[in-house]
Amino acid sequence: MDIEANLIFVRSFRNTFGRMEKALVLGAAGQIGTELVAALRAKWGTENVIATDLRPEALEAPAFALNAMDEPALRALVQEQGITEVYHLVAMLSATGEKMPEKAWELNMLTLFHVLNLAKEGLLKRVFWPSSIAAFGPNTPALDTPQYSPMDPTTVYGISKLAGELWCQYYHQKFGVDVRSLRYPGLISWKTLPGGGTTDYAIDIFHAARKENAYTSFLSEDTRLPMMHMEDAIRATLSLMEAPSESVKVRTSYNVSGIDFTPAELAENMRRHYPDLAMSYAPDFRQAIAASWPQRMDDAEARADWGWSPRFDLSSMVDDMVAHI
Ligand code: SER
Hints:
2 domains, 14 strands, globular
């Protein structure tokens, strides 16, 4: 047997006689999904990670077209495939959500209930669902935002994340559902573009620098936001999901911190690679959203409960983005 065949044998042996795990990723073609599917497949074996999306064309098998709003189709797939864990990554983000509030609420909440209810019925062992810095608002302490703070989100996306966090905790406390969650900061990646978020400028700027050596930021130069390299975000997700259930003490959603910077600081750091990078600033409606969010989060609980620690700092994130875009 060659090494590859050996590995597949070991994994399926473990899966058959050991953990018996099979994951389903909803929204697998999105910014997080693309990289999470690859990471899960490297760990569990390709055959044990099912990728689904509304648009499955870009996905590698095993993959299916699935609208997460379609509860019977979701249920059938979970049952037919013997799924044990769902990673629910379907959401309408902050900026798009403000343009179609009712749709955002419906999509973000109904799909969460579909998954939580399957877990409540005992069809799933574990669920991952991401929350966001958007769950916080203008009454939250902006610097070193504690895990437990006033929330009061101002966007439909943020309201759906805060409500979702509380529903996750409710399903855990009432029905014993093992649902786990992270409050992701703005996620920075080069493999797949984000869509419709307020933190997207921190990715757009790399593409614009490469193409035009100039960028017009839709956030003002001194708007500080918490951000994280996608590799750190994926590592945080896998660590949280691998932690023993009793270590996962926060059942709303964990603060996780990576880096924080302003558009001006990011541009200044990027000038190590693009010395003439020209910046201009034209804040739009996203400025008010960003201004209501934390600037830097305190993630003491994540560090203490399951050993979280980020690897990327601002310069290593910039170097990695420049190398790949
Ligand atoms: N990146 C998201 C957004 O900007 C925040 O979770 O909407």
